[in-house]
Amino acid sequence: HTRARSRTSPARTRTSCPTMTACHACSSEAKYRCPGCGTQSCSLACVKKHKEATQCSGKRDVTAFRAIGEFDDASVVSDYHFLEAGLRSVDSAARTAATLAAPAARGGGGGGGGGGGGGG
């Protein structure tokens, strides 16, 4: 297959057709690569075998170091989505905290501590 012209120098371009290797589970021709660990497999059944045998999550480590030469548009998008997910978590935590604090601010709240402080 052919590749569109790259804007980077020829030294930085990747080969468009990597050499095929064998499936880690059954030794057939591998078609897929695990984003988590790089293990190659040929089918969903072999991916499942790999995950069971190695306890691999199959998820790429989004915080892993990436050299500037490996950085591309997909990396920027991935980083953007990572940061957006972090902001969503912060916003969600703030809303939850506000919701939990609201009954206490109104004097209600399910404190259940009983009445009358009477110190004696």
Can you describe this structure?
The protein has 120 residues and is mainly α. The chain has helices at 44-54, 73-105, and strands spanning 32-33, 40-41. The chain has a two-stranded antiparallel ribbon with strand order 1-2. A hairpin with a 6-residue loop joins strand 1 and strand 2 (40-41). The protein is elongated, with a radius of gyration of 26 Å. Mean pLDDT is 78; it is low at 1-17.
Question: Short description, anyone?
Answer:
This protein is mostly helical and 120 residues long. The chain contains two helices and two strands; from the N terminus they run E-E-H-H.
Residue stretches low in confidence (pLDDT < 50, at least 5 long) are 1-17
Order of helices and strands: EEHH
The helix count comes to 2
Q: In what range is the share of β-strand residues?
A: under 5%
Write the layout of secondary structure elements.
Blueprint: E1 32-33, E2 40-41, H1 44-54, H2 73-105
Keywords for this entry:
120 residues, 2 strands, 2 helices, mainly alpha
